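This part of the workshop introduces the protein records we will be handling. An example says more than a description, so a record of this kind follows.
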Amino acid sequence: MMPRIIAVFALMAAFLVTVAGAAHACSCRDLPPKERVRDSAAVFTATATAVRVDEEMLGGGKVTATLRADHVYKGDPGAEFEVVTRAQGAACGYEFAEGERYLLFARAADSGLTTSLCSGNRRLPPGDSPLSLSDETYGMGELTAELITALGTPRAPRPAAAEPGPSGGGPIVPAVLALAGVALMVAVAWALRRSRKAG
């Protein structure tokens, strides 16, 4: 009977430690906006166009969000960004949802840009206008004059690279021209041969 009681207590203790660890694993410092901008490799507003899980949740997981930028406050003004984060909030992962717009603070890593629950990101209403004090945000506090000043003047992202159009005709046109050339040479050779036979 005693081993069963000890086993039950051990299971309860492990459960409580796991729950407490998950609740307190991610602890964020409240940094001034100027420091958040300074410590970031890229700061931009963008809408998530795709969100995929790259690693299973069990080990903390990894999520990659593809985002279409509308304003770039710091970093390369690309039209599209890929940002990696942990899959779980307890591991300081930031939750992305397709179709939602964000103000993102991203750091550079070996795998590209990364962000976290502690980065100072904010979910924004839909749209593509520059940030202003009248904007509502969801999570991590409201936009402040200090934040707007720290962000500075945004740049428009570069236009996305255009897909190659049909103007060049692709590989079909050169192939047709080559065949036409071969056919012409055969026709000329045949005509010369006939003229020799006739003469």
Notes: The two ends are 119 Å apart (CA to CA).
